[in-house]
Amino acid sequence: MSSESKFGEYGGQYVPEALMPAIEELTDAYERYVLDNEDGFMDEFRERLRDFGGRPTPLQRADRLSERYDREVYLKREDLLHGGAHKLNNALGQVLLAKYMGKERIVAETGAGQHGTATAMACAYLDVDCEIYMGRTDINRQRPNVFRMRIHDAAVNPVDIGSGTLKEAINETMRDWATNVEDTHYVIGSVVGPHPFPRMVRDFQSVISEEAREQIREKAGRLPDSVVACAGGGSNTMGAFHEFVGDDEVDLVAVEAGGSALTIDEEEGLAPHSASLSTGDDGVLHGARTKLLQNPDGQILESHSVSAGLDYSGVGPELAYLADEGRVTPVNVGDDAALEAFHRLSKTEGIIPALESSHALAYLEEHPDELGDLVVVNVSGRGDKDLDTVIEESEKRDLDAAPSMEVFEGEQ
Amino acid sequence: MSSEIEAAFADEPALVSYVAAGDPDAESTKEYVRALVRGGTDVVELGLPFSEPVAEGPTIQQAIRRALDAGMTPDRYFDLVAELREEVDVPLVCMTYYNLIYQYGSGEGGADDGREGPEPFVAAAAEAGISGLIVPDLPVDESDPLKEACETHGLDLIFIVAPTTTDERLGRMLSRASGFVYVQGRLGTTGARSDVSDDTHGSLDRLAETDLPKAVGFGISEGDHAREIVAGGADGIIVGSAFVDIVAEQEDTADRLEAKARELKAGALDGAPDLPEPESK
């Protein structure tokens, strides 16, 4: 079996020559182990995901949301995966693959820290050295995950350049990889980067839609009218969509971070949002041609989202392709709506969702009628890591939905 | 047919000097290029700054940041190149990342004129007086559209050979390279180092039979490095971070750039094993 490097015009392999032999080696390993299950790689991966990771995750009917929106709402509970996010599916797959390839060292970048945590966890589990790059801004807003990475014995390297978020962390990890490429594998955290990463990460994540498709048929007796997932780089998105792409009757809705506004400040070189799929232009970044937030010269803009995990100026090339083809509908919701959705799910369903996932839930609140009678929302991760941000941002906005964190009920 | 860049390597070991255009401003860049040429620079590699320079180490990353903050854009870059060409007679090579090339002319006002992909950039570069391109994030595998545009407009497309490059890849690169072969002296990113890597010698040995000039970059900062590399079979050296460090300090910048270039060029000449006797003119 072979693997194409492009999705239409998107994708490709735009990396420094020093990395190309490693990418060719990885492509070969991907085709043999992942696509052809050589040496039983995929069997071992599935078994470890089950025993270590806790798969399958439930597809839960959300009773009060179903009532609220007067339709059947199901939640795919990736927050219940070991580590608290879908990220383990990919991290475990890639660290295991690196071991099959004989690599001794893992490097990874992380934004919200979930991918870094999952990679550190997988490395501890499979006994491989691990080094994580993380932007300074993200380190400051995701402390719990920084501690978790270090507790798993990973080195966490702060990146001070630029806005200190995911884009800069990716640049720095690529530099490390280019220096140590002979014994090191770069575990990219999303469906981005040069081929074969977008396909490979999607394949590791597609267990989400594989399970969800079976579970919804069992529970509701049919396929859903729509599947809703948040999209930053797009790994939970592609994971939740992949097995439904061939089901034309299922709408696939990718919810991006609308941030504080869908504008662009060209003077400052920043976009106060991260909606590259719905508003970006075609360009080349981090190894792939895809949709990017950039100025007319091609300089990449700094992005923004209240959710560190969505704060990225690009998006996976396959999502860019599926959006162009009309198969995936890109939409977006703002920071405020995401924060409200965070509190709503916590209160009404007893689930604290990641701020990333809160974007998907906010879209459900704003546009329930566009999603049909049977809706699956991917809860990509749990929100423990976001508590500091949520408390601070909710207070800043005087959000009605948020409880006061300073006064206890009995003291009022 | 030998290109202007190849000709710059013809008589003696060449010094290829890099500065980031617009660091700290366009006027200073002109002054620095003049100083580098006075010091013996044979080819100037003029960086067009991109916001995500993944192949660069800290020194050049910071230079690129300064240049972007000072407002450098592709159009201002081409103006700068055109002005420089009136003053210096060494070939100018543009080093930049693919997104800037790809995006040029396809942004606002550009997409509707029917020109897409890298051609508008290459046309503008040729018109300004650029002789060749180095694009570190464009491996040979993705280079067809750019190579075609370069052939149309008479520019050399220079490929980087890494220590990890396989023989199969090397063959593909050499079949389409022109100008010179950029030999990456070591794995990693750009930046001054205190020694010459064994990787350099290995790569030069592999390229011994190649007709194109071979220039080594990544890590060279002193005359002694230049001597060793040329003695090892290189036709030239490429120096960036050592110059950019001087630019960053902003003290007697032009004089120090000239002196550094002179030291490196002298080292390169020293290392040349058997230069032909100078012809009487």
UniProtKB/TrEMBL annotation, chain A:
Q: What is the lineage of its organism?
A: Archaea, Methanobacteriati, Methanobacteriota, Stenosarchaea group, Halobacteria
Instruction: Please give the function described in this protein's UniProt entry.
Output: The beta subunit is responsible for the synthesis of L-tryptophan from indole and L-serine.
Enumerate the PROSITE patterns for this protein: TRP_SYNTHASE_BETA
Q: Tell me what this protein is called.
A: Tryptophan synthase beta chain
* Listed GO MF terms: tryptophan synthase activity
The gene coding this protein: trpB
* Tagged with keyword NADP: no
Q: How does it assemble?
A: Tetramer of two alpha and two beta chains.
Q: Which family does it belong to?
A: Belongs to the TrpB family.
TrEMBL record, chain B:
Catalytic activity annotation: (1S,2R)-1-C-(indol-3-yl)glycerol 3-phosphate + L-serine = D-glyceraldehyde 3-phosphate + L-tryptophan + H2O
Species of the source: Halorussus gelatinilyticus
Subunit composition and interactions: Tetramer of two alpha and two beta chains.
**Function according to Swiss-Prot or TrEMBL:** The alpha subunit is responsible for the aldol cleavage of indoleglycerol phosphate to indole and glyceraldehyde 3-phosphate.
Q: Family assignment?
A: Belongs to the TrpA family.
Name the InterPro entries for this protein: Aldolase_TIM (IPR013785), RibuloseP-bd_barrel (IPR011060), Trp_synthase_alpha_AS (IPR018204), Trp_synthase_suA (IPR002028)
**Protein name, as recorded:** Tryptophan synthase alpha chain
Give any GO molecular function from the UniProt entry.
tryptophan synthase activity
Catalytic residues (positions): E45 (proton acceptor), E56 (proton acceptor)
GO cellular component assignments = cytosol
Q: Per the record's keyword annotation, is Lyase included, yes or no?
A: yes
Matching HAMAP family = Trp_synth_alpha
